[in-house]
Amino acid sequence: MKAQEDVERPMHPLVSKYLRLERMPHMACPGCGIGQVIHSTLIACDDLALTPENTVWVQGVGCSSRITYTLWKGDSIDAHHGRIFAVATGMKMSRPDLNFICFTGDGDCMAIGGNHFLHACRRNLDVTALMFNNAIYGMTGGQVAPTSPVGARTTTTPYGNIEDPLDTVNVAIAAGASYVARWRATDFKQLTKSIKKGIKTKGFSYIEILVQCPTQFGRYVLNTGDPAKIIEWYKENTVRLKKAEKMSPEQLKDKILIGEFAQRKDRTGIVERYWEMVKEIQGERA
Ligand code: SF4
Fold first, then answer.
1. In this structure, is the dihedral angle defined by the CA atoms of residues 233, 239, 243 and 249, taken in order, positive or negative?
2. Protein residue whose Cα sits closest to atom 2 of ligand 1
3. Geometric angle at alpha carbon 228, from 220 and 8, rounded to 5°
4. Which of 186, 215, 231, 234 to mutate to test the pocket of ligand 1 (most atoms within 8 A of CB)?
5. Are the C-beta atoms of residues 85 and 117 closer than 8 Å to each other?
6. Which residue from 51, 81, 143, 206 lies 20 to 30 Å from 58 (Cα-Cα)?
7. How many other C-beta atoms lie within 10 A of the C-beta of residue 173?
8. What is the pLDDT of residues 215-254, one digit of tens each?
9. If you measure from the C-alpha of residue 136 to the centroid of ligand 1, how many angstroms do you get, rounded to a whole number?
10. Which pLDDT score, from 0 to 100, does residue 144 have?
C-alpha cells in the first residue's frame, strides 16, 4: 500500500498553466478557505483569457499574501504590510496595459493599510482587490482584527471583543470604488463571476471574501477546528442581499450581508485621467 504522500492526485490543469509548481502545495492550513478563492481566481483568469504575461499579482502581508506570494507564473510583487495599494498604484500608473490582481487580508487592508485602501477607492485605481476576511489575525497568532465580531475571544481579547467590526463593503462604496461585492469562499459560482466582473470593471473593484479559518478563528472564537462547522457558522450568519430586503432590522441584527453591492459606470479613475493628461501635454509640446 502506498503511503499517503506517495499517492498521485490529479492536478487541475489551471494549476500548471498559471502557478509555479515548485511552490505547490501552497502553505494554507488544511480546511482554510484561501485555496477555494485561488481556485475561483484561476477560473476567472482562464475564462477572460488572462495570461502570466499580461497579468501581475500583488500581495500584502498576512495569510492570503503568504499563500499567493510568488505563486503566479507571471510577475508578482510583495508589498510592505498595508502598502499593497501604494505599490499597485505605482505599477498600474506606469503599465496601464497590464491587469493587476491584489491579494490582501482584513488586517493588511483594513487596519495597517486602511488609509491606503481609502485612497485607492477614492482614486478609483483600476485594479481588482480580493480581500480575504478571516475575521482575525491568522498568520501572527489569532489577535483581534477590525473585522472580528463583538464578543470574539482572541489572544488579545481573552474576555471578548468590545469593538464593533468594520463593514468594509460600506467603506468601499462610500470612498468611491466602482465595483463592490462580498461572498463566502464557498460561494464558488458567485465568487468566480464577481472576480470576472471585477477584472472587467474599469476602476477599483473590491471583493471581500469571508474565508473559514480553522486554525485561529475557528479555534479561538468558535471553539472548533472543524472547517465544516465554521462553514456552517458562516451559512447561519450571512444573508443574501435579496433575501435581506424582506427581513426586519431585528432579523438582520448581527448578520453579514453577501452579494453585489455596487457597480458604478459613472466614474473615471486616476489611471485614465493621468494618461489623458500626459497625451494632452505631449500634444501641446509637439
Ligand atoms: S491561519 Fe487561518 S487563514 Fe491563515 S492559513 Fe491557517 S486557516 Fe487559513
1. positive
2. 213
3. 115
4. 215
5. yes
6. 143
7. 16
8. 999 999 999 999 999 999 999 999 999 999 999 999 999 9
9. 10
10. 96
Mutating to test ligand 1, I would choose from 216, 219, 231 the residue with most ligand atoms within 8 A of its C-beta, which is 216
* Residue 135 Cα distances to 152, 232, 268, angstroms: 9, 16, 32
Task: Tell me the per-residue pLDDT of 49-83, one tens digit each, with 9 for 90 and over.
Answer: 999 999 999 999 999 888 888 899 999 999 999 99
Among residues 36, 171, 69, 164, the alpha carbon closest in space to that of 114 is found at 171
How many whole angstroms from 98 Cα to the centroid of ligand 1?
Answer: 30
Instruction: List, in order of start, the domains of the chain with CATH numbers.
Output: 17-285 (3.40.50.970)
Nearest atom in ligand 1 to 67's CA: 5
C-alpha cell at 162: 468590545
pLDDT digit string (tens) for 132-179? Answer: 999 999 999 999 999 999 999 999 999 999 999 999 999 999 999 999
What does the DSSP 8-state code read for residue 220?
I
CA 207 to chain centre: 6
Q: Are strands 256-263 and 238-240 parallel, antiparallel or unpaired?
A: parallel
Which residue has cell 462604496?
173
